[in-house]
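User: I'm putting together notes for a lab meeting next week and I want to include a structural view of one of the chains we've been expressing. I don't have a solved structure, so I'd like a prediction I can at least talk through. The sequence is below, exactly as it appears in our construct file.
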Amino acid sequence: MERTAGASIDNNAVLEGLLHRIKETELQIKEAQVRLKALRIAYAEVEALLTGAAVTENVVDRTPGSSDAVRIVMTENPRVWNVAELTAELNKRGWMPKGSNPDATLRATIHRLGKIGTIEVVERGRYRIVTDSSESAVEGGEEAI
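Assistant: Thanks for the context. Below is the predicted structure for the 145-residue chain, given as structure tokens.
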């Protein structure tokens, strides 16, 4: 079977299309995992309240890490967020990163999520979750945070 330039281009287009679908599906899986984790946390907290049991260490241990916390908040309310709004929401839920400088940890988390394509920089200091219906406006999240 002889290859032609046209066939090579078609093959590349097929590969690019498949790779795009793989990335979309991976993102959908990540979003579903974030939603599932949030539901498990909510279930444990409500169960503890309804049974009159104290909130146990087990429930506290289910508090999401900083990346999951940002994804949960932004997925539940897919809009443009700034750092102050994310900080307020994370504080409200008791999910603010721990450590000596939680604000710096949150900024680093936002930067990391931008680099991997989970969130996009809409403009300096304003971010949104990347969904099936949105395309990342900033390739690789290279925009300054």
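A couple of points you could mention at the meeting. DSSP finds five helices and three strands in the chain. The chain has one domain: 5-141.

User: Perfect, that's what I needed.
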